[in-house]
Amino acid sequence: MTDRYAALSVTGAIAIVTLNRSEQLNALPPKAHYELAELFDRLFEQPDIRVVVIKGNGRAFCAGYDLKDNLSDNVVDLPQSGFGGLTWRDDYPLPLIAAVNGPAFGGGFELALACDLIVASEDACFALPEPKVGWAALGGGVQRLPRTIGMKRAMGIILTGRRVSAREGFELGFVNQVVTAEHLHETAMGWAQQIADCAPLAIRCSKQVAYASLDQPDFTTAINPQSYPCARLMLESEDAIEGRRAFSEKRKPIWKGC
Question: What does the pLDDT average to over 84-92?
Fold first, then answer.
């Protein structure tokens, strides 16, 4: 399936969303963000989809917001869900993997940070260069990066707009794995398949609690399963019974997502 700015393909329980403006290094104009917002909405409404991989067509992941569409009115036109239809969401239920094959600048870096995992090719590089054009990376970059790698290291990137290599990103902790360009897709799909093999409700609960616990007022609340409605739903599900039964019978579980 191909929309105007993104291509969608599905392999088993894995959806692959490919940003499709290779001539512009996948820089995204306003209409692209709305298209992607609708696409991500459709994906989590499909029960057979368990993981989403996001990648860029051509030699870039995403060069950010298309500034050529912003020269006249100085207004950034984004949906409520943010850059790429994703960066202002804090509760997207499906696991997200960014497969970064080249530059991920500005909103492109923010889009990658909005994902749960980042797999990068050796040629990938990351930057939040907004201050160099009079902006700040308010699409999630200045909020997520300090939470991911710590304030001091994040500010060294945020305040300078400098480029960070894939290897440095791995060392800093915002990249999960660095591979050669030819192995990027299969590596990202390998991560995705490992997630898809797990119980869907357990994965959604794990993701929700991991992020929600960061904002709990104290650690006692954070570690209390009763603080999270998804925990009871998961523990009382048919899949929880199936998982234990399959383990005892030494077979692969058959997940129903309920």
Answer: 95
Sketch the domain layout of the chain as residue ranges.
Answer: 6-195, 199-249
**Selected catalytic residue, list 130, 171, 238, 249:** 130
Active-site pick, 23, 35, 110, 168:
110
* Active site (annotated) includes residue 130: yes
DSSP states of the chain:
-B-SSEEEEEETTEEEEEE--GGGTT-B-HHHHHHHHHHHHHHHT-TT--EEEEEESTT-SB--B-GGGSTTT------TT-GGGTTT-S---S-EEEEE-SEEETHHHHHHHTSSEEEEETT-EEE--GGGGT---TTTHHHHHHHHH-HHHHHHHHTT---EEHHHHHHHTS-SEEE-GGGHHHHHHHHHHHHHTS-HHHHHHHHHHHHHGGG-SSHHHHT-GGG-HHHHHHHTSHHHHHHHHHHHHTS-------
pLDDT in tens, 32-85: 999 999 999 999 999 999 999 999 999 999 999 887 765 555 667 889 999 999
Say if residue 213's pLDDT is above 60: yes
pTM beyond 0.90, yes or no: yes
Give residue 71's pLDDT.
55
Percent over 90 (pLDDT), the chain: 79
- The CATH architecture assigned to 6-195 reads Alpha-Beta Complex (3.90)
182 as an active site residue: the answer is no
